[in-house]
Amino acid sequence: MNTISTSTSAPAEMISQEALTKLDKTRLRSLDVFRGITVLSMILVNNPGNWGKIYAPLKHAEWHGCTPTDLVFPFFLFIVGVSIAYALSGAKQRPEQHTATIFRIIRRGLTLFALGLFLALFPKFDFETVRIPGVLARIGVVFIIAAIIFLKTERRTQILIAAFLLIGYWALMMFAPVPGIGEANLQPTTNLAAWLDNKLLPGHLWKSTKVWDPEGILSTFPAVATALSGVLVGQWLKKKDDPGNKIAWLMVWGVICTCLGLIWDLHFPINKSIWTSSFVLYTSGLAMLGLGLCYWLIDVKGYRRFTTPFLVYGVNAITVFFLSGLLPRILSMIKIDTPAGEVDSKTFLYESFYTPYLSPINASLAWAITWILFFMVLLYAMYRKNIIIKV
Predict the structure, then answer these.
(1) Are 211 and 205 in contact (CB under 8 A)?
(2) Which of 161, 166, 164, 129 has the alpha carbon at shortest distance from 148?
(3) pTM above 0.85, yes or no
């Protein structure tokens, strides 16, 4: 269930040692590591022991603004874009195969959407109130759109499409009246994106709000621009050019995009929940800087010894994300009898081995770190056996 490999080969579920050796020659190791760091961070922020006891950097911004946690999802979509440029570059040069390639793209995207829907349904399978938007759903939709745009257009057109998405979204959110409410606004429940979510998906939105969704319909369009920024970077990295020149320009554009995002923030605030255009520029710029640093250290300078823990996360990214959503719910379903009464196994483990020995906030953090280590052991075993699970 991996998103999209940075190689166009090896479609099989289990990859042999010989095939993996061939992959290593074409994969961008720094991209796998950067993806791994991103997914590991996602596990950390999504699995605290107590949602009421979390260090500030591990929380999302309440509304406007950006914390380190808010960088995780846009970084992942940026990485999806870079991967698209690597995985589909061969197919792009063969127009006669575009129809078949588009069918594969749609299949992969819909598989991701279905996995997200399964997680939303599990374990109650209540179709009447199931949340339809979500992280995997957005990844699937964004992947389909960004991949087809890459396949059928050239770089200049891709830049224009990304700019159109950002400027068009800004214009809609800042100037279009909200039906039944009035003037355009950026308040959580009354902005245009929230109105559209509630209009088209009533009863199927994020349970914390019920009237709008952070992975909603309208905000998916600027999220496509996030992926397209990665597509543009991927094409740049694939160029036959001096690595130093690639890194220099990647860093320059990273700084430019970050600064443009901060400038736009003065009028259209940086906000993950509605994925504002300033948020796209700001986070894409930081992602360029992060990938540029990884590329310089790992692929250019050859510093690879420290990368294995992140690499094992990176090559099976969607697998671990799916399991990290599934296994905690299974733990909550398993009941244990205690002197105080019946509790779920997650509560039993947490209150038996964490809260008695650590402060509440550190116990919560330690629980999340335990999940990171657990998955690292599992993923390392898969990595050693050359198992890469793909959609």
Answers:
(1) yes
(2) 161
(3) yes
